[in-house]
Specification:
alpha+beta; 2 domains; 12 helices; globular
Length: 246
């Protein structure tokens, strides 16, 4: 895979669309990436992909990385030279498949990182590998967590109505002792629902999830014609929901 051309002071970045990974993977700012991808990518590259994910929030169509500014923002010193921390981080992002160089010379970066491969998991430190195995076991047995799913989705929807993004919602749910797998699912679901209410099919498009049928009446469906939009959750109601989750 070709490496990015870093002879210029800036680098154009575009999204790398991959519907399969986007359906199954993890936000670069998520707990999964922090706990497991970190051991694969290293800290500099992990912070770089998190920075790029944050930039995509404001510019989903793409943006330009000013290399000196990014190196300074991430505490990586200067951006020049083959062995500079930022240059190594960019090369590692391509080496491990979280970014690639397009024929036009742009850096195509994933907005969602895939689960680790079996080979990558086998190379994790023993303690981290055991934690990853436990994580995946919970994912496989997620059907046993229906009650926690329902509670997490109610809280996630309240957070989304208050304007928190997916990563912040996921982190808040985990602080309320909701399992990270469930927190991630609830955060993504809530923001897809908010996007659907706002009439944004590109963000809302997703196959029907049977868990949607289990949430109950506290999560309203589409509004009736002429009906006022649902009122957003208040901080007080959110606090009550958080207390329920603890």
């Amino acid at each position: 895979m070709p490496a990015p051309d870093l002879s210029a002071p800036s680098l154009p970045v575009v999204a790398w669309p991959d519907p399969v990974v986007e359906a199954l993977g993890h936000d670069p700012r998520s707990t999964y990436v922090e706990r497991f991808w970190l051991a694969v990518l290293g800290p500099s590259t992990t912070w770089l992909v998190r920075h790029i994910a944050h930039r995509f929030e404001a510019a989903p169509g793409g943006f330009t990385l000013e290399l000196d500014a990014v190196a300074g923002a991430l505490g990586l010193g200067h951006s020049k030279g083959r062995h500079s921390p930022l240059v190594r981080a960019l090369h590692r992002s391509c080496q491990f498949g979280v970014a690639r160089v397009t024929p036009a010379g742009e850096l195509a970066a994933r907005r969602v990182l895939p689960p680790l491969t079996r080979h990558q998991v086998e190379r994790l430190p023993d303690v981290v590998r055991a934690e990853h195995d436990a994580w995946r076991a919970v994912e496989r047995d997620a059907a046993t967590l229906d009650a926690q799913h329902r509670r997490a989705r109610r809280i996630a929807l309240a957070l989304a109505e208050l304007g928190e993004d997916v990563a912040a919602t996921e982190q808040r749910l985990q602080r309320w002792h909701i399992h990270p797998v469930v927190a991630r699912d609830a955060a993504v679901w809530a923001h897809r629902l908010m996007a659907a209410r706002a009439g944004d099919p590109a963000r809302a498009g997703a196959p029907h999830d049977p868990l949607d049928d289990l949430v109950g009446p506290r999560e309203p469906g589409p509004a009736r014609p002429g009906a006022p939009p649902p009122a957003p959750a208040s901080e007080a109601s959110l606090a009550r929901l958080g207390g329920d989750a603890a």
